[in-house]
Design brief:
The complex is a heterodimer of chains A (346) and B (544).
Chain A lengths: L16 H23 L2 H23 L4 H6 L2 H12 L6 H16 L12 H12 L1 H5 L14 H10 L8 H4 L4 H10 L4 H4 L13 H17 L6 H20 L7 H5 L4 H8 L10 H21 L6 H18 L13
Helix pairs in contact in A: 1-4, 1-12, 2-4, 2-5, 4-5, 4-6, 5-6, 6-17, 12-15, 13-15, 13-16, 16-17
Chain B lengths: L4 E2 L9 E2 L19 E3 L5 E5 L9 E2 L6 E2 L4 E4 L8 E2 L4 E10 L7 E9 L20 H10 L12 H4 L10 E5 L9 H8 L1 H15 L3 E7 L3 H13 L6 E6 L8 H9 L14 E5 H13 L5 E7 L7 E6 L4 H7 L9 E4 L6 E2 L13 E5 L18 H5 L6 H9 L3 H6 L10 H5 L6 H55 L7 H38 L4
Helix pairs in contact in B: 3-5, 4-7, 10-13, 13-14
The chains are: A mainly alpha (346), B alpha/beta (544).
The structure holds iron/sulfur cluster (SF4) (2 copies).
One iron/sulfur cluster (SF4) binds next to helix 9 and helix 10 of chain B.
Chain lengths: 346, 544
Amino acid sequence: MSISIASSPHVARVNRVDRVMLQVLAGLAPGVLALTVFFGWGVLINIALAVVFAVLIETAFLLARRRPVLPAIGDLSAVVTAVLFAISVPPALPWWLTLLGMLFAIALVKQLYGGLGYNPFNPAMAAYVFLLVSWPVPMTTWLPPAMLAEHALSFGESLQLIVSGALPTGLDWDAISAATPLDAMRTQLDEHLSIEVIRQSPLWGLVGGRGWEWVGVAFLLGGLYLLWRRTITWHIPLAMLASLGALATLFWAIDPQSHPSPFFHLFSGAAMLGAFFIATDPVTASTTRRGQLIYGAIIGATVFVIRTWGGYPDAVAFAVLLMNIAAPTIDYYTQPRAFGHSRGRT
Amino acid sequence: MPSLPLALARAQDEPLWTFHGGIHVPDEKALSNAEPIEPLPLPARLVIPLQQHIGAPARPLVAVGDRVLKGQLIGAPEGYVSAPVHASSSGRVAAIEEHPVAHPSNLSAPCIIIETDGEDTWAKLPEPLTHYAQLDPAELRERIRWAGIVGMGGASFPASVKLSPGADQRIRTLIINGAECEPYISCDDRLMRERAGRILEGVRIMRHLLGAERAIVGIEDNKPEAIEAMRLALADSDMDPWTRIQAIPTLYPSGGEKQLIRILTGAEVPTRGIPAQIGIVCHNVGTAAAVADAVLDGRPLIARLVTVTGRAIAHPRNLEVPIGTPAEALINHCGGYREPPRKLLCGGPMMGFTLEHIEAPITKALNCLLALTPAETPDPGAARACIRCGRCADVCPANLLPQQLYWYSRSRDFDRVQDYNLFDCIECGCCAQVCPSHIPLVQYYRFAKQTIWAREREKRQSELARQRHAAKQERLERAERERQARLRQKQAAVAKPAANGAAPDAAGGADPRQAAIAAARERAAARKQAQATTTATAEEAPKE
Ligand code: SF4
Ligand code: SF4
């Protein structure tokens, strides 16, 4: 009889990394669906490409580092990174940019630091920012939501566009691309148009961009699912959305003609995706619950500041990367009061 | 965490408090808790370890070949923090030797091995002290010490020491631990159901000894029969005005000493401190019953209740077992294995340790033999990297950051790991149970603690050696100075024979003696320090 010896506890473990990652992927599903509905097949093609690239690159790296391949691939963290990246970039992004992005995310940001758990930066966001800074044009060329598009790209057309960059006959980029609502809002505010005037364009829906706002709602739903499954805790999303919402409300209340409503901020760009799926990446976020409130709140505030006064229309990626650097320090100063210790920090 | 009293809808109860974290684990008590206490037949051989407690091992009082009687003292305590051992039955001492024992290290330890004669003849026992209330507390304490009673919930700290708080420590509350929060174990449950009166007698004695104002018995609410039995027994007694039987929510590890104190009183035992510092002493229900046996019947602690359970055991039971019975005998008595166990544990599944040698004896603190099937204790697989999800911190009853402790234990940054309060970790295993990366966290913390202890011991030893060396140096120098002085005086005396008498010589003669006294003092101080060290280490050892 062989009796196994291992340290206590001896009960079954209740969680598993791959299940956590699966839950994250499940939580992303509504958002991915909404994106596909409004922005076409390109979204799914990007996801598929990114996942394949990520897995291949990670496998190659693990082989080179002589690490077991299956457990690391099986934890699905590379897949999550790939999906997060793919849904952050424009749906018609050339394939080689996705490849570059995955190389950057998986090889440089993740594996060179030692693999999952050791990377100080969120790989998907680091790759996104790297590409945004290096190839700003393709990284900001978005398609319009389906209801505004003159021509909806078929699956074949999308694939062709991504793989070869060839546009469907008779169309040019101007015809098929459109600015994102955040971009549009910004440009027009810079032209000193009032919100009232800006909002008359058919680009706008109930609170944010048409189509876009529903993507936000879908990510919110997915996020609530994660909260319900206890995949994440409420601290980071709530702090981030609350600080973004509070700042937006403040400025909107002061000057509603040059500051869009808080709902616009919450349901535009990557706010919901960021709050529930990106800022909550446990590896790179603050790990203490109190620290997470601070972490989330500063991300929310940074997003608002960059959106309002900074050089980029959206800012979730920048804000998250910035706070990745601060996370260890926040952790150190927000340790919980250990049992039996006096209230003051020890 | 905010200290919110948990207002439970139990009319007669005082408010309960909560501690941070904790987990719900399937309690699996139903496997064994319907089985009444059943005496185990006397085994042919008893293996009685000389150390069954925290502190110094006992010194054997018998020799190979001696005939011993049941209840006879066979090992005397060495020092204050120690406990004697008694023969659990009559027979002949077959050997005094190293034998495998139930210990996390799974090493061997000195044991007295008795071949039983089957007669079970009692030795002459001391008089019952039924009139203990009129006795000098010192006499009562001596009885408890003589009986060799140690913490029976697993802590195994000598009970008499915990019942002798310092003169400056006024004890207000006596807490009796009937929580039994570890899954599977049900021997305390059965003890409360079947011998509630005995437990309360013990409580009465302990409360008398401590001069405590009140006693609270804390029992997890997954043991309604035990709560009921204890309440009935209390109603039958005159202890009602100062004793309370308190049901507490079932949440692992509410039976941890610090957690239970917190739940029942709202107070927190200060870090590295002991409950007596905040006027509280906590004993297990089994310890209370053993105290009653010792005082009211003059019986030493020679048997205890052991739950033999787990799905690999054919017929899980609660057995009353003579101390020293090989574990094997208990398992055989329960019908052996139904299927090969993946693990055989001493204690519960959360904090127990694997028993490698099935011939190891039952000791005073061993409350459960747990044979788990592969389905009950599945292989967690290889550990993955920590993803810093913080689930561990959410469940840590000590409110630590287990992920940080892990990070720094792993990188062997032993200063940082202490910054994150490693020594407040009670090794409850909650963190490891919820960790999605299946990291054996507790193993890392034990490793870190042991390494730090070893280093501190080393440091202290080298410091002592340094002091000794300095003292010796100083002695030699002084002797040399004195020799020179004497020489000079002698020369002076020779030069002026009429001026000086014999006085200097006498003074010089006194000095070596003083040096000897100083040296003796130093040795005594060193010894004391060494003792203090062992005591401190012992108290920090994980409890229950
Ligand atoms: S539960 Fe495990 S993976 Fe999560 S933070 Fe704690 S140690 Fe790391
Ligand atoms: S084993 Fe230690 S660190 Fe882990 S939960 Fe228990 S007290 Fe906290």
